[in-house]
Target: tRNA pseudouridine synthase A
Amino acid sequence: MNYKMIIEYDGTRYEGWQKQKHSDETLQGKIEKAFEKVTGENVQIIGAGRTDSGVHAKGQVVNVHLPYDLNAENLKNELNEILPDDIYIKQCTEVEEKFHSRFHAKSKIYEYNLRIGSNKDVFQKRFIWQFAKPLCIEKMKRAAEILQGTHDFTAFCNNKNFKKSAVRTVYSIEISTSNDILHLRFCGDGFLQGMIRIMVGTLVEVGENKRDADSLYDVLKSKQRSNAGFTAPPQGLTLISVQY
Model:
């Protein structure tokens, strides 16, 4: 049987989503251990998004195959009793055997939040980049328009050994403010390692007048990571949802 789950987590203390040989502190690893305790099965959880260390999720989608049928609601409840309190399964449903959470995803939405006011909030520091400097929002919006569309995003990838196609389509980048928080919402068909955080860092440099918005045309054409901006800190980034 194949089960689809929607999961939220605070990624602060984890070394990313993907299981690693030399670390027990990954989200995939924690959830797979919980499955083993509940079902007695050594399973592989497939996540739609491989979030980096320190990145959060409100709508991570996973699927997992089990050799027998279980009540989905009971499975969800038993797993939640075992999982750490910073990981929570919001929904569990039985789906077709062929469903694959990563390969069948049509788009993903991420949101990055940073504080642009001078005041800091210690209770939000795990979920917001406390940038605490003014930015020119209109220039950032102009630069964001250039990043939208289908491009080769090699310059916005932190994986130097990435060999596959770096062509991705960014459907939209929405920039808005509420009080002194700047929200950047990205929707695309997929994102390279570090891609959103590099885009955020580059847009911040535009907002600080450290580079022109139109320079992003040349950055994309160059396919050189060194020509793009810095990688923004992970805590401001959250995987919001995955569309199928």
Notes: The mean pLDDT is 96. The radius of gyration is 19 Å. The chain has two domains: 2-95, 107-243. The longest strand covers residues 167-178.
